[in-house]
Amino acid sequence: MTDSSCQPPYPHQPESPVQSVDRAVSILEFLGRQEEAGVTEIAAELGVHKSTASRLATALELRGLIEHTEERGKYRLGLALVRLAGAATVRLDLSQQSRPVCEQLAAQVAETINLAILDGGAAINVDQVLGPSAITTHNWLGRRTPLHATSSGKVLLAHLTGPELDRRLGAPLESYTPHTVTEPGALRAQLRDIRSDGCAYSIEELETGLNAVAAPVFTFDGQVVAALSASGPSYRLTEQRLPEIAATVRAAADRISARLGHLRRS
Known about the structure:
The structure is a single chain. This protein is an alpha+beta fold. It has eight helices and nine strands. The termini are far apart.
């Protein structure tokens, strides 16, 4: 016969990773509604033992997603959520704020305009506007392109931190045309010029007969969130014309940056 008095108040059932994540998200949602709450309240909301609630709260606190108020012994949402929300807001704002500028730029330079963001080991084009002279067979929207062989990718590479840049340049770089720069030293020299000049060029590096120029788009805190580029056939977007187009693209990128709250330093 089993002595029920020896049984724990809560049957022990190991949590699955999915269950833990679900409960952690529930804590964030609960604190979003309540503003602050103690472990007892969190446990009651989740229907779990206080030790489980405390363990989950501690994990969230270590990540800065919630914080402990020592004077009241309760938890509230942490500043890490503000950073995450800010990043999501920037992505949403980027599409909204860049579109009219991209349309103006496409009409002004009469070439294809793309807005690209860093996505893992590539640049992905999240918006595209065709100029009146653009060749419509090139649809770059949603396409992942190599960082080292495109003007947008070089802009994004140029503004990575040292260790991150070292990691990305540590692996062999693929050559797409005879003009693709694959030697790390030569590419690093280009990236230094890009940071200094505020623009990047790709002269038949991704495809033979295709030239492009790009400039960085900054967020309010000075981080590069995207690259704005103009691309076209080399017979029209010639090397002689590229510096003129670069100035126009830089000005357009600055307008998008300003719309995102970036104050350009003099």
